[in-house]
Write a structure and sequence with these properties.
This protein has about 400 residues and is α+β, with helices and mostly antiparallel strands. The protein has helices spanning about 5-30, 95-135, 145-155, 160-195, 245; strands at about 35, 35-40, 40-45, 50-65, 70-75, 80, 85-90, 200, 205-210, 225-240, 255-260, 265-275, 290-300, 310-315, 320-325, 330-335, 335-345, 345-360, 360-365, 375, 390. Among the domains are: about 35-50 and about 320-390, Beta Barrel (conserved putative lor/sdh protein from methanococcus maripaludis s2 fold); about 55-60 and about 235-315, Efflux pump adaptor protein, beta barrel domain (Elongation Factor Tu (Ef-tu), domain 3, Beta Barrel), CATH 2.40.30.170; about 95-180, no CATH class. A hairpin with a 2-residue loop joins strand 16 (about 330-335) and strand 17. Residues about 20-30 and about 140-165 have low confidence and may be disordered.
Length: about 400
């Protein structure tokens, strides 16, 4: 080997050695990256269920008809405040008034028939009383005459027997039939008056008029209500839950309502009612899932909320006590598995965890961690298993 080649090789080795040493010194002097940690401890956690709901009045009245009829008068307009019993509208009563008049006339005829039947029956009764009086007063009659009269009376049938008894029975029957006719006519008059009264619509509640679909002089709509009244001082929220969520809620559980129109304002309430059965509604989907209707009662009603508005519903289920949970920002996924970076002895350890219920900020951990473990918040893609790190000051609480 020539001296020139030897010196070149020596120079290369020297450069590599200096580079390696510099890299080693730089690595030894480099500080591990800082991470923010949180310590796991048992907590109380509420599972949160989310749904969409619709604002509905707690009390509402809809006036409808089964068959078209002419609208005679409308007494209210949309936005009016009404009291219970206040007149709302009237339908045409021409036919109903005629039916009432006819029923009254029929009642008068039935009463006249009854009076005539009772008069005839009383005539039979009075005739029977007169005959008995003659038979019981023999004082001024001669013996032979009295014997003849008594003989005739004893041989004659009484007004209630024999040939003379038949007309008496018929008179009694005529009175009974006439009484029944009067009763029937009275009931017919009540029906006619009731049908007439049904053409006058009054408010059944105190509230505000939301809709008026009846127009004076026009026929009543059948598919839509004539008038809609609601008490807007008390509102409910009607929501629908899937089968899984419906099985987790109970009457009395707390709810929170949010909406774009409310801004940052949160309205609280409770679950007032849960439907006893699930319903599958018609849908464009091939197999629509059944849902359970849930009614929510609000503690207060902001002026911004109107009937028909859509709101976001958050239901807080019964708390689970003493469970381990981590902040949602400490979790990351790979495939279908959940992981956290657990900190131990200055290094990170990629740890698979099993999860349970979740809230908007916490995730229950059912396996993979123990109380007292510390995990990284907001893990990044640069982090690796067994990577050396330094906790931030005060981190880990």
């Amino acid at each position: 080997m020539s001296k020139k080649v030897f010196l070149g090789a020596l120079a290369i080795i020297l450069i590599l050695g200096l580079g390696t040493g510099a890299w080693w010194m730089w690595e030894r002097g480099k500080t591990p990256p800082k991470v923010k940690l949180t310590t796991i401890s048992p907590v109380s956690i509420h599972e949160e269920i989310y749904a969409n709901g619709t604002i509905t009045p707690a009390s509402q009245q809809e006036l409808r008809v089964l068959s078209p009829a002419k609208v005679s008068r409308v007494f209210v307009k949309v936005g009016d405040k009404v009291k219970q019993g206040q007149l709302l509208l009237e339908l045409d009563k021409t036919l109903a008034e005629a039916q009432v008049s006819q029923a009254r006339a029929n009642l008068q005829v039935a009463k006249a028939t009854l009076a005539s039947s009772e008069s005839q029956l009383n005539a039979f009764k009075n005739s029977s009383i007169s005959n008995n009086q003659i038979a019981q007063k023999p004082g001024n009659i001669s013996g032979n005459t009295l014997n003849i009269m008594m003989s005739d009376t004893s041989n004659s049938p009484s007004p209630t027997q024999g040939s003379e008894g038949a007309p008496f029975k018929q008179a009694e029957l005529a009175v009974t039939q006439a009484q029944a006719m009067v009763k029937q006519a009275e009931e017919a008059l009540k029906v006619a008056e009731a049908q007439r009264s049904q053409l006058t619509y009054k408010s059944g509640i105190n509230g505000t008029v939301l809709q008026v679909n009846a127009v004076e002089g026009n026929l009543t709509p059948v598919q839509t209500p004539l008038v809609v009244i609601a008490d807007v001082s008390a509102m409910n929220v009607e929501a629908e839950l899937n089968e899984v969520d419906a099985g987790r809620v109970k009457v009395g559980q707390k709810v929170q309502i949010t909406s774009k129109v409310l801004g940052d304002k949160i309205v609280e309430g409770i679950i007032a009612q849960i439907a006893p059965q699930a319903v599958t509604k018609q849908s464009l989907q091939a197999n629509p899932a059944p849902t359970v209707a849930v009614s929510l009662k609000l503690n207060s009603v902001p002026a911004e909320l109107k009937p028909g508005f859509t709101v976001n519903v958050q239901i807080l289920t019964s708390p689970k006590e003493g469970v381990l949970a981590v902040p949602l920002e400490s979790l990351f996924q790979e495939g279908n598995k959940n992981y956290v970076y657990k900190y131990q002895n200055g290094r990170l350890f990629k740890t698979e965890v099993k999860v349970g219920v979740a809230t908007s900020v916490l995730q229950e951990i059912t396996a993979g961690l123990a109380s007292g473990d510390r995990v990284v918040l907001n893990p990044t893609a640069q982090m690796q298993d067994q990577m050396a790190v330094t906790p931030e000051n005060g981190s880990g609480s």
